[in-house]
Amino acid sequence: MKLIKISLGIFFALALSRFIPHPPNFTSLLALSFYIPAFLGISYLPILILSFIITDLFIGYHNVVLFTWGSIIFIGLSSKFFKKTIFTRILGSLFGALFFFIITNFGVWTTGIYSYDISGLIQCYLLALPFFAYSLISTFIFSAIIETFYKIKFIKDFFINNFVNSKKLQ
């Protein structure tokens, strides 16, 4: 039952972020892609990818979808190296945004929209910079929100375990 509740929570958090009107690339998807495996474990990565697949059914598939999903898997797998402190987690989520930018825009370049030379590759990345700015800002904001909820839960659990439960034992 707990797995179903968490899975639905992941899906609804991702879907809400993708379906409500927002500036381009201003969603929680990169922060969620980092924090779900970091806090819940790599075993939740398939649920995250499945949530992407389902929401992409409604949004629409595109030529770069495999690069997008691949970058999400990469971000999720790399999150274990950054989960020690709040600083490293936020840094890791921002690195995730950078990897997403690099991987997905390489995918855009492979579609043939830009010329297949170094000039086309550079042009692809340069024209994507405004979208990268939105990704960085949203990833930072959503990471801060997730960290805040994590700290609130940690403080609440600490208080209950150390004060409320100890009084019941007396």
Structure description:
- The protein has 170 residues and is mainly alpha-helical.
- It has one domain (24-146).
- 80% of the residues lie in helices and 0% in strands.
- The protein is built from six helices and no strands.
- The chain has helices spanning 2-19, 29-40, 45-59, 65-78, 86-110, 118-169.
- Helix 1 (2-19) runs parallel beside helix 3 (45-59), helix 2 (29-40) crosses helix 5 and helix 5 (86-110) runs antiparallel to helix 6 (118-169).
- The model has no long low-confidence stretch (mean pLDDT 89).
Topology of helices and strands:
Blueprint: H1 2-19, H2 29-40, H3 45-59, H4 65-78, H5 86-110, H6 118-169
Q: What are the key terms here?
A:
170 residues; mainly alpha; globular
Q: What's the number of extended β-strand segments?
A: 0
Q: How helical, in percent, are the residues?
A: over 70%
Runs in which pLDDT lies below 50 for 5 or more consecutive residues are none
Q: What is the first-to-last residue Cα distance? A: 33 Å
Strand content: under 5%
Mean of residue pLDDT?
89
Oligomer: single chain
Question: What count of helical segments does DSSP give?
Answer: 6
Structurally, the number of domains stands at 1
Largest sheet: none
Order of helices and strands: HHHHHH
What structural category characterises the helix and strand content? Answer: mainly alpha
Globally, the shape reads globular
Work out the radius of gyration.
18 Å
